[in-house]
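pls design
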């Protein structure tokens, strides 16, 4: 059995446990094992969730993305034995965890790769927090940038304030689906947000292509969109993208896009987190132009222009080779 996984993140006090409790009470979590992380010695979150009778594993005393990462691996190894009938896993990180570390873990571990599929990274945001303030709280920007879906906990704030926050969140991560709910009142949030049919690398795909071509910047965190026409050679493109990501001056948080290649009629879906990038083909309907969205810290327009030029150069060189072969 390949079990589905959702990583639920968000800064301290965002409402992650409230979200989980609401879904448990609605009956939507019957098929889910919850792993709850708290960096303190005692986790009140785990106590709350444990009292509901839900299937859960507490992971306290450290941060799940670093100091207790080995404990997470051990727990994931044990879940098939402890909960053989459960098909889904909800990993609730602590408020100071960087989910990108967990995303790369699922790519690098052969056991996890063959036993689990990462469906989503969901970031919960407390709408009462000022966005500018949130951007100064490490690792809140990384949590938002890694998300395939952002759940904004609106409380009772005016619509105008919520609209502004949604716009600001979208400026940092234009490829995330943004859901606005009141976690205290809304009990019907769709479980498909967490365990949909799509894997993490193609979550939120439709949102990628509605972004503008210029860069957005928020407290040093930048979002750039690159578009180009025509197809590229898969090997050349993957090599140049890998090399670009390894640039020592590049502080990449997330990379995502769809690319036309000479190798297939299907589109290649590109997913990058930090220094790791994956390439997969998909049958979904995508727009005619190839698109890459780059999210990171202080990524300059020069860096983006360099990548864009390398892509165009690779296209033209391959075209010249094809014309020579035809002659």
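designed seq:
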């Amino acid at each position: 059995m390949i079990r589905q996984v959702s990583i639920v993140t968000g800064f301290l006090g965002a409402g992650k446990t409230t979200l989980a409790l609401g879904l448990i009470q609605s009956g939507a979590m019957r098929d889910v094992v919850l792993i709850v992380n708290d960096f303190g010695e005692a986790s009140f979150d785990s106590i709350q969730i444990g009292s509901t009778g839900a299937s859960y594993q507490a992971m306290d005393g450290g941060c799940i993305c670093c100091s207790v990462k080995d404990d997470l691996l051990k727990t994931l190894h044990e879940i098939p034995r402890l909960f053989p009938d459960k098909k889904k896993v909800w990993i609730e990180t602590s408020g100071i965890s960087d989910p990108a570390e967990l995303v790369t873990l699922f790519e690098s571990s052969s056991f996890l790769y063959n036993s689990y599929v990462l469906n989503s990274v969901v970031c919960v945001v407390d709408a009462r927090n000022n966005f500018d303030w949130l951007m100064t709280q490490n690792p809140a920007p990384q949590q938002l940038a890694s998300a395939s879906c952002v759940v904004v906990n609106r409380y009772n704030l005016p619509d105008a304030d919520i609209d502004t926050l949604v716009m600001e969140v979208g400026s940092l991560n234009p490829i995330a689906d943004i859901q606005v709910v009141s976690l205290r009142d809304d009990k019907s949030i769709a479980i498909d947000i967490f365990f949909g049919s799509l894997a993490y690398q193609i979550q939120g795909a439709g949102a990628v292509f509605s972004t503008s071509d210029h860069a957005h910047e928020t407290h040093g965190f930048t979002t750039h969109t690159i578009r180009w026409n025509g197809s590229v050679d898969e090997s050349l493109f993957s090599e140049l993208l890998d090399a670009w990501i390894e640039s020592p001056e590049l502080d990449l948080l997330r990379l995502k896009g769809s690319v036309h290649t000479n190798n297939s009629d299907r589109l290649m879906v590109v997913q990058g987190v930090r220094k790791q990038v994956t390439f997969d083909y998909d049958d979904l309907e995508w727009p005619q132009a190839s698109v890459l969205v780059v999210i990171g810290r202080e990524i300059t327009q020069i860096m983006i222009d360099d990548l864009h030029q390398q892509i165009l150069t690779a296209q033209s060189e391959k075209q010249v080779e094809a014309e020579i072969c035809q002659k």
